[in-house]
Specification:
- With 198 residues, this protein is α+β, with helices and mostly antiparallel strands.
- The chain has helices at residues 8-13, 81-96, 115-118, 126-133, 137-145, 164-176, 180-193, and strands at residues 23-29, 32-40, 46-58, 61-69, 123-124, 153-154, 160-163.
- The protein has seven helices and seven strands, in the order H-E-E-E-E-H-H-E-H-H-E-E-H-H.
- The chain has a four-stranded antiparallel sheet, with helices on both faces.
- The longest helix is centred in the middle third of the chain and has 16 residues, at 81-96.
- The protein starts with 7 loop residues before the first helix and ends in a 5-residue tail after the last helix.
Amino acid sequence: MAIELLDPLTIKAIKGPDPGKKVTRHNDGGGLWLRVTKHKSKNGVERVSKSWEFFFTLNSKTTCTGLGPFAPTDKAPGLTLAAARDEAYPHRHVRNRPMTAPNTDTGQRGNAFSPTQLVPNALLRTKDVCAVTGMARPTLYEAMAAQLWPRPIKLGAKSSAWPATEVNAMLAARVRGASIDEIKALVVTLTDARQHCA
């Protein structure tokens, strides 16, 4: 049975999960799915969120990684349908590649896999986030205080990290030239989505 690919009008018409369900997924083919979730915010308001997921098989086990929230237009925070397809393309390339345990001690460049290739939902420590964003540590903490960057996930009493998918979504918004209000909205969306990771 052929998969009917999603289109912007179909996505716009989706107002929530199927009746009686909290989560419904819509297949766009090639491992890319639109996840539609109904949940309540902290103040009890019920709302629906849409986000992109990429499913793949690695070592005979099916798993998924979140690509980011859905965006209806290029100017909104998140990923449009076209952007989600572009984001999924390199994941297909990496997941379909034969993967063996990396040897980082060979002394040769390019032999080691990045954390996000080995672990779909990789967590990046502060120094890693600063390295990929170009922000100094004080600038990163100022952005968090101004609600322009999500707060990290606590790993322990003295350690914390950010999901790589969130860092990618924030960088994509900045590259697109998202406004301060759009970035703040994206921070809220990403933070809320943590409660619904599956």
